[in-house]
Specification:
479 residues, alpha/beta, Aldehyde Dehydrogenase, Chain A, domain 1, Aldehyde Dehydrogenase, Chain A, domain 2, 2 domains, seven-stranded mixed beta sheet, 14 helices, 19 strands, 20% strand, globular, binds 2-aminohexanedioic acid
């Protein structure tokens, strides 16, 4: 049993919210053993019955929405409306996956031989190791657990060390929904202990991880010896393109929401704005005015626009990029500092930050900052905009503001991202569509939507011969 502990503190005030075990390899061992034993019965529960438990869980989440939302504003820091959206995303995902209990479709297809029946079915894989981030502390665990469970797997969840209390509350609610004991298990603590033990455990054949690119590479390497299934959802450096015919008011709304919502701490945040030269100045001045009017404060206060960032390391990293941008020759238009007025000095508040005159190759235009910082890049035409948008190692989300339907369709075809928005910002994914990205954003998988089922099942092809004689495929076919 872990003897060491760590504290969860509010990023807005430093208040201690709880103490949690730093789970070690022995704790992970116990959790995996429990999940492995539970798998033998859970996989045999009919999927529609599993779905009924998920329906009840979704109803309980609805009942608990206000409490979880309030807790999230304290433990993670995002503002109330967004915290409510986070919980709602989990409710939506759970209902959606509950419905899968009566689908989980496979295929039937004719046999090449007479009196023979062919079909393929999805089968659960076993114990899923789910490693989740702090930025969507309820939504992302639900994206992983709801599909894993409906498919018949059991789970060991290792939530981020910044949001353990929310993860505990989330997991506790499964009991009330009637989920059998041992189907969902939780371990706490850090990546190099609990996380690594989970990723390396021989009885955990599936790892689903959302987090940084660097950790994603480490997870892949650690899982390689056992040829595990690894699902990764990693970084982004998402761009909004604003063309000369765009509705500028709408574009400003979309950019502000995507760049500064969740204090820029979304994988889908708009950290680049690629603007046509004819509207660049107008867009820049409106964005700066909007950024300067935003009120920083604790997420639970009604008039807060921008909450804190998650912790000290995050604010230091974000601030270091302000220095990097200035050293590279970009123009700091607004922000670029830690806010300390009033009670803000008790937490980690960073002013909405906009750089102008950014060159596409600068580090502030290439590297994920994960904070309320965005970079304005001027371009001469549509083709250059697409080139700049794609000139990046990541490929999660992208957006274009234009009224030209031809350009919109070309952008839909040519933007190299897993998600593209037309006349909306880069955030706002809905649970029933695939979520994930190209290039270094992942390894080709998608979560959410029907595609999530592929992460948590194996396909089995079944041939039923009712001819009563030996029929040899590829050999007896021609006769
Ligand atoms: C994330 O930042 O990892 O589309 C998830 C969005 C949210 C999910 C973001 N629905 O921004």
């Amino acid at each position: 049993m872990a003897t060491e502990t760590f504290e969860s503190t509010s990023p807005a005030t430093g208040e201690v919210l709880g103490t949690f075990p730093k789970s070690d390899a022995a704790d992970v061992e116990r959790a995996v053993e429990t999940a492995r034993a539970a798998f033998e019965t859970w996989r045999l529960v009919p999927a529609p019955r599993r779905g009924e438990i998920l329906y009840r869980f979704a109803q309980i989440l609805e009942r608990e929405k206000a409490a979880l939302t309030d807790l999230m504003t304290h433990e993670m820091g995002k503002v109330k409306a967004e915290a409510g959206g986070d919980v709602q995303e989990a409710i939506d995902m759970t209902y959606y996956m509950a419905g899968e209990g009566r689908r989980l479709w496979g295929q039937t297809t004719p046999s090449e031989l007479p009196d023979k029946f062919n079909m393929s079915v999805r089968v659960p894989i076993g114990v899923v190791g789910a490693i989740t981030p702090w930025n969507f502390p309820i939504a992302i665990p639900s994206w992983k657990l709801a599909p894993a469970l409906i498919c018949g797997n059991t789970v060991v969840l290792k939530p981020a060390e910044d949001t353990p209390l929310l993860a505990d509350r989330f997991v506790e609610l499964f009991d009330e929904a009637g989920l059998p004991a041992g189907v969902v298990n939780i371990v706490h603590g850090y990546g190099d202990t609990a996380g690594e033990a989970l990723v390396r455990h021989p009885d955990v054949p599936v790892i689903t991880f959302t987090g940084s690119r660097e950790t994603g590479v480490a997870v892949t390497k650690a899982a390689a010896d056992r040829l595990k299934h690894v699902h990764l959802e990693l970084g982004g450096k998402n761009a909004i393109i604003v063309l000369d015919d765009a509705d500028l008011d709408l574009a400003v709304e979309g950019i502000v929401w995507s760049a500064f919502g969740t204090s820029g701490q979304r994988c889908t945040a708009a950290s680049r704005v690629i603007a046509h030269e004819t509207i660049y100045d107008a867009l820049q001045s409106r964005l700066v005015a909007r950024a300067e009017s935003m009120r920083l404060g604790p997420g639970w206060e009604d008039d807060t626009d921008v909450g804190p960032v998650i912790n000290r390391a995050a604010i230091e990293k974000i601030h270091s990029y302000t220095k990097i941008g200035q050293d590279e020759g970009a123009r700091l238009l607004t922000g670029g500092e830690i806010a300390t007025e009033g009670d803000l000095d008790k937490g980690f508040f960073y002013r909405p930050t906009i750089f102008g005159d950014v060159e596409a190759g600068m580090r502030i235009a290439q590297e994920e900052i994960f904070g309320p910082t965005t970079a304005l890049i001027k371009v001469g035409d549509f083709d250059e905009a697409i080139r700049v948008a794609n000139g990046i190692r990541f490929g999660l989300s992208s957006s274009i503001f234009t009224r030209d339907v031809n350009k919109a369709f070309r952008a839909m075809r040519d933007l190299q991202t897993g998600i593209t928005y037309i006349n909306a910002g880069t955030t706002g994914a809905e649970v029933h569509l695939p979520f994930g990205g190209t290039k270094d954003t992942g390894n080709g998988h998608r979560e959410a939507g029907q595609t999530a089922l592929d992460v948590f099942t194996e396909w089995k092809s079944i041939y039923v011969d009712y001819s009563g004689r030996l029929q040899r495929a590829q050999i007896d076919t021609a006769s």
